Amino acid sequence: MKIAFFTGPHCCLCDDADALLRQSSVYEQLQITKHNIRDNTEHYHLYAVRIPVLKREDNGAELGWPFTLDELELFLK
């Protein structure tokens, strides 16, 4: 599954989300592309106050911080 991971520079919450993502039971099956919102005006306007955000490429569903491992697992099913 392809996941877009919207992050920002020096974002400790993004680091926390990344650590949780690595704990996922399906982590090895994921294709994760990180996007620094500062590199894209559209991403910045969409996600500036919401990062970190995970977005599934297959259905467009988004999961924004804060989330638990259980919520993450459900999102990735």
Question: Summed up, what is this model?
Answer:
The chain is an alpha+beta fold and 77 residues long. The protein contains 3 helices and 4 strands.
Your description of this structure?
- This protein is α+β, with helices and mostly antiparallel strands.
- The protein is 34% helix and 25% strand.
- It is built from three helices and four strands.
- The chain has helices spanning 12-22, 41-47, 69-76; strands at 2-7, 31-36, 53-56, 62-64.
- It has a four-stranded mixed β-sheet, with helices on both faces.
- Strand 3 (53-56) and strand 4 (62-64) form a beta hairpin.
- The protein starts with a strand and ends with a helix.
- 14% of the residues are buried.
Molecular shape? globular
Count of extended strands: 4
Point out poorly predicted stretches: none
Supply Rg: 12 Å
Per DSSP, what share of the residues sits in E-state strands of 2 or more residues?
Answer: 15-25%
Give the overall average pLDDT: 97
Strand order of the largest sheet: 2-1-3-4
Helix content: 25-40%
Major sheet attributes: 4 strands, mixed
Distance between the termini: 10 Å
Name the helix and strand elements from N-terminus to C-terminus, one letter apiece. Answer: EHEHEEH
